[in-house]
Amino acid sequence: MFGVNDLPTYLAGLALIILLPGPNSLYVLSVAARRGVRAGYTAAAGVWCGDAVLMTLSAAGVASLLQGNAVLFGIVKYAGAGYLTWLAVGMLRAAWGMWRGRREEAASGSRSTAVADERPFRRALVISLFNPKAILFFVAFFVQFVSESNPVMGFVTLGVLAQLASVLYLSALIFGGSRLAAAFRRRRTLSAGATSAAGALFLGFAVKLSLASV
Question: For the whole model, what pTM was predicted?
Fold first, then answer.
């Protein structure tokens, strides 16, 4: 049906995979908590565009090429790990500045500059594209549910379902994160602690990514 094999199994697996925490969802949550709903959806749009690109590459067979070529896979893997590390260092530096207890006026000025330079859509897009785990998901899980009788419709159906699940999940994170924003603004210690935790998690994602195998 609709070019898809065993749709219930795909939906069950998709729900589990979507709910697993990852750098994409964590970044969207952090943006929503720091900057509100609108910025959160800007970051989420970057994730959705990145996923759409990976789905298209999977349909074209490019992801299979990465899976079968250790050198290319290594390039993508370490580039992604390096980018996640760079983001983590930025978060930890921002948290350190909060812990040092700068004057409120100076802190507000520095945070506004950082917010202006952040560009959440671009960051979320890059995080999505340089994610070998996501690439392998679309090769090892996504493609096995495409029917050989109608592969085009199968890819479109599976892709639409994956994006709908992502929209629902990220929307829940965005509105949850925006509710945290007020608490973060009132309590700088809480904000510093959350930023430190996010930076540490991004470092963990970078290490996990660098150890990933084909």
Answer: 0.70
